[in-house]
Amino acid sequence: MNDLANAGKPVLKRWTTEEIEALFALPFNDLLFRAQQVHRERFDPNAVQVSTLLSIKTGGCSENCGYCSQSAHHHAEVPKEKLLDLDSVVAQAAAAKEQGATRFCMGAAWRGPNQKDLLPVLDMIRAVKALGLETCVTLGMLKEGQADQLREAGLDYYNHNLDTAEEFYEEIVTTHSYQDRVETLERVRKVGMKICSGGIVGMGETRAHRAALIVQLANLEPPPESVPINMLVQVEGTPLEGTPELDPLEFVRTIACARIAMPGSLVRLSAGRQEMSDELQALCFLAGANSIFYGEKLLTTGNASTSHDQALFQRLGIQAMAA
Ligand code: SAM
Ligand code: DTB
Ligand code: SF4
User: What CATH number corresponds to the domain at position 111?
Assistant: First the structure.
């Protein structure tokens, strides 16, 4: 049996870039069929998990990630704000639960948290968890000991994206390294927390870079439980504004490859849905995406509206996944 024939088996397999590139090169229908088969071995094909995002600390970030509206190095029109207070976070989490979200993800525009900032975030985690929601935070790089504090507060997932291939990373960010990102993921794993890690496509990377990102994620031991695949949202005033648009079918292929390489993970159709047609999103679900961000806003940019998403789920016969 060749390696492709093993795709989707629930064993920890080490993937090579050549194998993922071979998947990318399959005829579209063959790739989607294979992804759908893998998907059905482990998941209800008509259930999609629903997460809601909240930016708890917006703008003024020291890092220079080329895609990001919140970097102080760029000129996007994003106001620099202080950390939100606990009551407003809890109110928004309760509203998200009311709308059907099962996971609440809080994001901060930091290189990483300092101790003074981390303490109020720990209170937010405890309070959101007490509402019966799964908790996720994305706070940047963690220092020794911080992952422990997050876990003790009851955090379920830490989001930290590898974002792209190691070989392409320096084209996008120079204020921290790919290795820094990997080290934070190791710290999260070491304390036994679940990982949410994925990337962005459409930043001018090649197919080989997309394949390399998937390999890097799939070969984490174990792979991330949650894998967000973001389509670049081009924000005015960021260096990546004006990047040539990626063929949307290549985005679908990326989702399919992620599904095949990480058969047990939730693959999240993340940023970029507002710009996608229902038909393109339907293809992404067929390719194995089974999670979305739900709610009118991502962190600083718009998201598909809640009523639109409800209608889309109805059109496709999709149910929100229970927690
Ligand atoms: N500062 C933390 C960090 O960088 O890990 C957390 C917040 S950061 C905004 C979280 C993730 O959002 C990034 O890793 C990236 O994948 C995604 N993201 C940010 N801006 C985006 C954009 N314009 N389009 C698509 N994804 C984006
Ligand atoms: C992820 O992979 N995507 C989310 C979440 N994790 C934190 C963020 C998307 C941000 C899109 C651009 C914005 O709204 O600023
Ligand atoms: Fe800062 Fe995160 Fe944006 Fe990079 S992606 S500039 S670290 S908020």
Answer: 3.20.20.70
Mutate to test the pocket of ligand 3, among 55, 57, 63, 299 (most ligand atoms within 8 A of CB): 63
**pLDDT tens, 262-286?**
999 999 999 999 999 999 999 999 9
Atom of ligand 3 nearest to the CA of 176: 7
Active site residues: 61, 65, 68, 105, 136, 196, 268
- On whether residue 33 sits in a domain, the answer given is yes
CA dist 264 → 10, 214, 321 (Å):
7, 14, 15
Q: Which domain holds residue 41?
A: 21-314
Using a pLDDT cut of 70, give the percent of the chain over it.
97
Provide CB contacts within 8 A for 262, sequence distance 6+: 214, 217, 218, 223, 224, 227
Ligand 3 binding site (Cβ under 6 Å of any ligand atom): 61, 63, 65, 68, 70-71, 109, 111, 140
Q: Decide: 292 and 251 in contact? Cβ < 8 Å.
A: no
- Are 286 and 68 spatial neighbours (Cβ–Cβ below 8 Å)? no
138 lines ligand 1 (CB under 6 A): yes
Compute how many other C-beta atoms are within 10 angstroms of the C-beta atom of residue 234: 17
pTM, 2 dp: 0.95
Q: Residue 158: CB within 6 Å of ligand 1?
A: no
- In a domain, residue 13? The reply is no
How many domains in the chain?
1
Determine whether the shortest distance from the Cβ of 66 to ligand 1 is under 6 A. Answer: no
Ligand nearest to the CA of 59: 3
Note whether residue 12 is domain-resident: no
